[in-house]
Design brief:
Distance between the termini: 25 Å
Strand content: 5-15%
Number of helices: 16
Largest sheet: 8 strands, mixed
Shape: elongated
Oligomer: single chain
Amino acid sequence: MVPSEDAAPQLDVDKILADPGVRIVVCCGAGGVGKTTTAAALALRAAEHHGRRTVVLTIDPARRLAQSLGLTELDNTPRQVKGIDVETSGGELHAMMLDMKRTFDDVVLQHTDPAKAAEIFANPFYQAMSSTFAGTQEYMAMEKLGQLHARGEWDLIVVDTPPSRSALDFLDAPARLSRFLDGRMLRLLLAPARSGGRSMFSLVTASFGMFSKVVQKVLGAQLLTDLSGFVAALDSMFGGFRQRAEQTYRILQARETAFVLVAAPEPDAVREAAYFAGRLREENMPLAGLVLNRVHRPAVPQLDAEQSRVAAERLTELGGHEATADVLRAHAALARQAVREQEVAARFTEAFPAVPAVSVTAQPADVHDVDGLRTIGAAISRP
């Protein structure tokens, strides 16, 4: 017997979106499971149905969020979405897409003087790090979330987490980058600048000179020079990186945040969702529930796959009923797929029986407009 979808408590999304105590909703999960669409649908519903001034932050490089909201483009500044139905509710919907380099630049400008900022921007190591360094996107997503939260302009912030190799990168990368920027090796590189600005290659102590030669051999002289200059220029910001990462992490642990796991009924996606749920529990972060996207349901659930197959074969033997037989075969295939999906989804439910869940039927086409987002939002929020 396949566990029914009702084995898990029902996720009440409208209750979350309407709660004034919830100020942040974080949609997370593996790549390609519909996080961006889910985030946009939740933000739209919060504005239209619950009257909340909402901003949705996406980190989706494919710009699907802009397309679905009818905008030509999104950038690092929230843009109001026009043409949505908020006359009765009084809500607003704004949308933005993370520009990680611009966010990094804004952090530098905010915490240094103009001359120092210009020095940092010109540094080759900074130019590479701010654009391509592993973990920078996730760290800057946390920075932007912290900025939006601190401004206090929004009733609700909905975050579409980065399309990372692992959903956990959103939680792990900021800490990794903070440790890198505040790490022992970089502190050693910074020591010459603090001792009077002497060159990395004219250090006083023989022991540090040996260290310098080893690092130079591994990294190369030019990269080491760029790195040393970058570290010296960012000296005053090191504590800030760590402090802001820790502050945002505490916000994610607070009751004002609700994590919504998004998955598809596929083994890898459900495994990733279960792993993330376990991590959230370990970190005392508030998991609101699971949205299971792209679920297939047969139109006549009481007719199972085997009955359909037998009936199709019988009609074929009788002859003259090929169209009906083809429909029965298609129904049998869909019924088998539905059973497989329920079995996969049950792996999460069995591991986390107390986590509320809701499933969303697979749509006939990708969502590209506001009406499509309303359909998804209604499906997620069904009683």
